[in-house]
């Protein structure tokens, strides 16, 4: 038994060759092209910023992009200041539910935002639509879940959609093509650090 550097190098090369065969076959088998529904959920930080990173990627390809931010009401974020120059950007929330403390007000804001989202989901000119924090509206019952799923199901075939928010409901993740769950390992807020421009807003 030997694990001298030349042996290690040969082993590595053989392992990578096997890996390449498997990966190349998987790439060759993936031939579909269609609009995708992505869901980014979980308790960790990085859901909305993952969606905004994808917005930057799509804009780099010249794709028409729409963003609807539910729940949040602030319009001084870095993402809106920068990406809002190139994407159609709507901040439709009235603030967090624990701030508004009014179900009627939350529902009215949800419906205003959904009207904009539904318009985008019916228009094939939009190649990417981001529905930021939509999961909360589904979980609180502020929007009709069947109507939302129906609009997603009947959207233009090449349109990509990203939904973010904690606790994505199962009927949404079942319907989605790609689902990522971000785990909360630690967050600076719990160590007393306030929201930092460029990182948190
Ligand atoms: P981001 O917008 O930074 O990608 P997010 O979309 O994953 O975060 P949200 O639940 O939408 O998370 O919350 C947005 C704000 O709350 C951000 O300022 C973020 O840093 C903060 N935040 C996110 N996750 C946590 C957490 N686990 N604990 C404390 N604060 C958090
Ligand atoms: Mg978010």
Rg, Cα atoms, Å: 21 Å
Please estimate the helix content: 40-55%
Shape: globular
What is the CATH top level name of the largest domain? Answer: Alpha Beta
**From the structure provided, what is the oligomeric state, counting identical versus distinct chains?**
single chain
Whole-number tally of structural domains: 2
What structural class do the secondary elements suggest?
alpha/beta
Mean pLDDT: 93
Q: What ligand molecules are bound, each kind once?
A: adenosine-5'-triphosphate, magnesium ion
Could you say what the CATH architecture of the largest domain is? 3-Layer(aba) Sandwich
Alpha-carbon distance between the two ends: 55 Å
Q: What is the CATH superfamily of the largest domain?
A: P-loop containing nucleotide triphosphate hydrolases
Give the strand content: 5-15%
Order of strands side by side in the largest beta sheet?
A: 3-2-4-5-1-6
Taken in chain order, the helices and strands follow as: HEHEHEHHEHHEHE
Please count the beta strands (DSSP E, at least 2 residues each): 6
Please summarize the sheet with the most strands.
Answer: 6 strands, parallel
**Might you state the CATH topology name of the largest domain?**
Rossmann fold
Per DSSP, the total helix count is 8
- Runs in which pLDDT lies below 50 for 5 or more consecutive residues are none
What does this structure look like?
It contains eight helices and six strands; from the N terminus they run αβαβαβααβααβαβ. It is globular. The chain is α/β, with parallel strands linked by helices. It has a six-stranded parallel sheet, with helices on both faces. It has two domains: 31 residues; 151 residues, P-loop containing nucleotide triphosphate hydrolases (Rossmann fold), CATH 3.40.50.300. The structure holds adenosine-5'-triphosphate (ATP) and magnesium ion. Adenosine-5'-triphosphate (ATP) binds next to α2.
